[in-house]
Amino acid sequence: MQKIKFWSNWDANSRYPYLFLLLLAVLSLLLGVYHYLTGDNLTFAWDKITDLQVVPLPVHESNHLLQNFTLSADGYLLLEQYDVAQPFVNTLAAALLLGIVAVSIAFYTAAISTMKQLGYFGGILLLMLFLATCNFDLLEVFGNGGQGMLLFSIILLASVSYGFQAFWQQVRFGWRVLAMAGVVLLLVLLIYGEAQFPARLITLHLVNYSSIGLLVATVLFIIWVSYENINVLLWINTQGKTPARRFSLWQFMLISGLYLLNLVLLYLRQLGYIQADLFYLNGYIILLLSAIAGFWGMRQREAYYKSLFLFRPTGAVLYLVFAILSFLSIGYAFATANDPLVIMYRDIIEYTHLAFGLGFLLYVLINFSKLLEERLQVYKVVYQPQRFSLFTFFLMSFIVCAILVVRAQYRVYFFAKAGYYNYLGDLYRTSGNDILAERFYEESDVYDANNVKANYSLAGLYRQQQERNNEILRIQEALEKRPNPKLYVRLANLYDQKQYFFEKLYVLREGVEKFPKSSELYNNLALLYMQTNVLDSTEYYFDMAQKYSADPDYIRSNRLAFYTRQAMLEPAKVVLEESRKGHYKPLRSNMAALRQLLGMDLQEKEVFQPDSLKEVEDMTLFYNQTISTLDKGDTTRLKGINSYLQAPGNQMFYEDLLYLKGLVQHYNGRPREARSILENLALQYGERSAYYSNALGLWMLEEQNYRAAAAYFKEAKDKGFTPAYLSQGYALALAHQPEAAVAALEEVAYTDDPEAVNTAHALAAVLRMDVPTVLAQGSDKDKVQYLLTYLPQLRLTQVDTLVQAIGEKEMKRRALVARVEYLMDQQLWRQAYMAIKETGAQLQPEGELRSALNVQQLKLWLNTGEYDVLLNRMNNLYLTDRDKRLNLYFKARVAEVKGRNREAAERYQQALKMLLYREDVVLAAAKFFKKYQPKQEQSYDILLSGITYNPYAAELYKAYALESLNQGLSSYAEQALTTLQNLLPATEYSTFIKKYEKQREDLAARADNWQL
What we know:
71% of the residues lie in helices and 4% in strands. It is elongated, with a radius of gyration of 44 Å. It has 49 helices and two strands. The chain is mostly helical. The N and C termini lie far apart (121 Å). Helix 39 (829-840) packs antiparallel against helix 40, helix 43 packs antiparallel against helix 44 (901-914) and helix 44 packs antiparallel against helix 45.
């Protein structure tokens, strides 16, 4: 431990700066490892192409006249295809590198200031050469293109460091570091403050231009430590305290030979002589081991360099500075995915470690073989040669290394040039100078033909310029030399049109052959086969993608969309169960759509409502979830929808969001606002106008405003929406207009929809019958449909006969509920009471029929004065969420009867917001405010809102006409009469006219009396 922590005996002024530098070295190493693992994914990041698939989602289903009516909205499935983003210039990595290099320069200049004169001048020369590679002149710090900044920086750094070396030798090392750090900081402030470029470009300029200097420093360091692994093996073999615990000469030769054999295999593989995928020790791992061993080796060799400087602290600091520069330089090559430099550094490591490792092994064997045979501690005297000098060892090793470089046709030199030009291309592409960037990338391609960095960067430039063919050529060239899955994915995606189907298939299959564990390639193949409906191949490639995927939720999302689109419910349910805990937003969005299609409740605990819709999946997840939560009494999403509608970036989704807002309002008790939105959509969006008119018709059906529903369906029908043909016939039948219904049902034949035509013919045939015929020939379904259509026109005996003739249980239940409704409309309270008791015994405890019967029971108590019973039983009776809203109306009526006018007014106001579509609620509210607030126009406003929302409510028009007279609005009253003439039968209209005329005469007489 004492040997490891050799700095523990140093004085504080040396120990603490050294420990700081050691931590910086560890940080640099960690950064290098991080970029080794992630650099390619940051520079050439995976991207996605999102395909938005529209699928009809059932919003609400209701049954009218034994026919199901479903309102569907466009839901969205997300299919995501892998793509590769534009090349990314990692400016953060550049900034970190520059910052650490600046600190290293401070330590370096402080360290060389402790050297002897000859060593100091050598150190300053290296610094000057490094600073010269920064090309300060291009930054125009002093407003010109000269070398003023370079000269100034050299003079300032050299003069201060020389002052410590020659004149202020008593200053301790820690203070020297601080002083030199101050000088470096001054230079940095001067450069960033005076240069005529943004800080980001200055950083890239300094880092990328100085990469040559960093490269030289890295090569020197690699040579410096190239034989340290053999030295460590020597220590391992001979460090035992007793000869018995030490290894022999042959054991040392065996383990050293295996290490060198690995390097030989790496070299032969690099030359192409070996193609087999054997186990190789990674070159960068070898360097890391050498660098760690070098800490110890540097201390061992102090006897050889102490004439220039001492290990403490100069040698130790210099070693760490060069280690830091090496880690940073190699790490930055990985951070920028600069493959020529990555390969070059790997080759340099292999060449130097093989040459110098072999040389050091010979050096040890020639000098110390006898000592090894005697199992002595050779590591202690390894730098005291007797026959074969260190100089000879270095010279011989260098010659061998040069031979290896020449044998490889100087490729390390060409790779270094190619990598340097890639750096310059990144710099000028970031600055927006694409012409120069293209030139430098092309130069890089000259020195390392078809290297990935240059060719993909050029492809990125061509992508910006939409030069598809040039982009294809560049990617194909990159694939020739160093193929990877990303290049295959990007190339395949360039064949994105249908006529290039087989080209795309060929590229993806070739990629899979070379990279059989690429989930991205399998995913894109599965999506490609989806276009052919070859389901087996699609499933196979999805299976392979999921098998090798590091992100299974991504693949599950696509599978779920695939199964949903193909209506493959069983496998879709399996994937849905597997994905229960998934957090990936596209997956959650597809899950929400599938659950809605299956009629399942949304199971997510947390409601997704982001601050903004930044991505498509944000919109689809929010939209699909909101569809799944309609009719839950939850209006909290309206706030989010309103904010999204106001955001300028959401214009693409504006129509969907506006419709979603209408849906939320309609199914959560805001009918007026909802209908206003849909009417505006029907006017503004011509292509979808018919759909919105049909949706309004379905809403009116749900609210039992059948004449309004028929009008909207006709509107949709006239605009070409074929499902509205059948819906209009049913709406007219429910509005008790059988003749008009038959005429509409006959027009269904124009739709060429066999199922709709058959349904229309069957209902039309029923509506043409009379009571005896339907009793004799009709099925139970026919009888119920006939009863519901003709209900107001039948006599009680006919109603009873029809109900009794129905045998099927469910049909009987519907008929019994209709009979109760008939009795209530006829105000036969006693008979209605008995009918409710009879019907209740046959209904299920819950369901729409039970709720409808309970509503009639509440009305009966209200109309018979059983107010206390009404209030006490109200919350105990089963009601659907929609029918529960009527409780506000009942409470208002009871409060009015009991004289609690303030409470009644509040209840009526609440009820009107949620129940504006109900005639009885609007009439009761108008009557109340007319009675208790006669001087205000509130009654008139309520009736006006009522007829605006429901323009086919005859009773509302009657009340509105009379109230218009009371308010002195004769013209409005006359307009109401004109409308009433079309809504009422002639006899009923004549009766109302008499009442209208009498009220007008009374008002006129009252006015004459007031004038007298």
